[in-house]
């Protein structure tokens, strides 16, 4: 029971964090409380990950500030064991980027389950006070902004969500654990000696009294009201709309976030950087993306024309069938000659097989909804 007081103090904090992540951290602390040992290499890896998360980087004229892992006011035991980012460090990084004359935009690269309530309001308020200037502050959900992380994201000039991203979990909670039975089993009898009627109220060695419960509930509700109020102000909506439409603790996918007004657009981090002149994509990759996009458009054009019963040219057919089937240029030309019966007698076995594939592809394409 060496670390039981740490576990109890952790549980009693007001948290704006995804419940699953909080459970993982609580399990780790419980493991430590029961005398479990974490190998030095594992702890070193966790600490390294935490320090890595503090480092901002520059992409062109854009400052990219990682908001990763558990969020806390300062780096402490919780961030050592779980990896994370401090509100203090984030505020300093944002201020530094705003003061740098070479920086034209700030992107918060967010992948976080949330964290502690203390500190979230101050950072969120500061971001909202600094937005709207010459240097836009963009919250890039890449790929999770839950609870306190969404609190922060909602205060930025713009919220962008990666296509597979999720955000939300607007809510606050805390836990009281009555460990009196566990202490008794371990042969421990703890006595608190205190001055002040409520000094040891809600302690973990006894059941939670009704008046203590009511007091804690009021604290949680107050934090929640501040959270909801901040989101409403950040997103430019009413508090009632946040409570009605923003999930009451649920997490939503990218398309849902756009529909609800919780985010502004769907896009990857690379796409966001490119919008601000910091495209780091290699030229060969850009060319490949462009070619694939053109083929997809050609395929869609062919399918739409044929569904409508409208004529297509040989070139449109060749380009469209390359997009539909992934044909090479020579295969597409052969398919077009067969389809339009240009200079062809009876097709041989290979040509008949090719035409069968083409007809199958066209039939599938024509079944797609517009």
Structure description:
The protein is α/β, with parallel strands linked by helices and 370 residues long. The protein has 2 domains: 4-275, 2-enoyl-CoA Hydratase, Chain A, domain 1; 283-367. The protein contains 16 helices and 10 strands. Strands 1, 2, 3, 4, 5, 6, 7, 8, 9 and 10 form a 10-stranded mixed β-sheet that branches. Strand 2 (57-59) and strand 3 (62-72) form a beta hairpin. The protein starts with a helix and ends with a helix. Mean pLDDT is 83; it is low at 47-54. One of its GO terms (molecular function) is serine-type peptidase activity. Residues 133-275 form the Peptidase S49 domain. Belongs to the peptidase S49 family. Keywords: Hydrolase, Protease, Serine protease. It holds the Pfam family Peptidase_S49.
Label the CATH architecture of the largest domain.
Answer: Alpha-Beta Complex
Pattern of helices and strands: HEHHEEHEHEHEHEEHHHEHEHHHHH
CATH class of the largest domain: Alpha Beta
Largest sheet: 10 strands, mixed
* Strand-pairing-aware structural class: alpha/beta
Helices, by number, come to 16
What's the end-to-end separation, in Å?
64 Å
Low-pLDDT runs: 47-54
- Provide the helix percentage: 40-55%
Identify the CATH homologous superfamily of the largest domain: 2-enoyl-CoA Hydratase, Chain A, domain 1
Q: What is the approximate shape?
A: elongated
């Amino acid at each position: 029971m060496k670390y039981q007081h740490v576990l109890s103090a952790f549980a009693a904090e007001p948290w704006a964090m995804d419940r699953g992540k909080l459970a993982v951290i609580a399990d780790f602390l419980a493991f430590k409380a029961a005398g479990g040992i974490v190998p030095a290499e594992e702890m070193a890896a966790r600490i390294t990950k935490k320090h890595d998360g503090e480092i901002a980087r520059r992409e062109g004229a854009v400052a990219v500030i990682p908001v990763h892992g558990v969020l806390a006011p300062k780096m402490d035991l919780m961030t050592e064991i779980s990896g994370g980012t401090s509100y203090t460090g984030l505020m300093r990084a944002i201020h530094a980027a705003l003061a740098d004359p070479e920086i034209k935009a700030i992107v918060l690269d967010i992948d976080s389950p949330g964290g502690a309530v203390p500190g979230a309001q101050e950072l969120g308020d500061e971001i909202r006070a600094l937005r709207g200037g010459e240097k836009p502050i963009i919250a890039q959900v890449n790929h999770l902004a839950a609870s306190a992380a969404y609190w922060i994201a909602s205060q930025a000039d713009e919220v962008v969500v990666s296509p597979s991203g999720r955000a939300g979990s607007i809510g606050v909670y805390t836990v009281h654990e009555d460990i009196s039975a566990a202490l008794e089993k371990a042969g421990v009898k703890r006595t608190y000696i205190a001055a002040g009627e409520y000094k040891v109220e809600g302690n973990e060695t006894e059941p939670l009294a009704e008046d203590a419960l009511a007091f804690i509930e009021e604290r949680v509700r107050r934090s929640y009201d501040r959270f909801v109020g901040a989101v409403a102000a950040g997103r430019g909506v009413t508090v009632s709309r946040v409570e009605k439409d923003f999930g009451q603790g649920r997490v939503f996918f990218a398309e849902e976030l756009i529909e609800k007004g919780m985010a502004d657009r769907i896009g990857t981090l690379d796409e966001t950087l490119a919008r601000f002149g910091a495209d780091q994509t290699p030229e060969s990759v850009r060319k490949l993306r462009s070619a694939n996009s053109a083929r997809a458009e050609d395929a869609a054009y062919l399918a739409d024309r044929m569904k409508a019963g409208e004529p297509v040219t040989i070139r449109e057919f060749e380009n469209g069938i390359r997009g539909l089937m992934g044909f090479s240029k020579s295969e597409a030309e052969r398919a077009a000659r067969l389809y339009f019966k240009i200079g062809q007698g009876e097709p041989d076995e290979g040509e008949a097989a090719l035409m069968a594939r083409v007809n199958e592809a066209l039939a599938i394409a024509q079944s797609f909804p517009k």
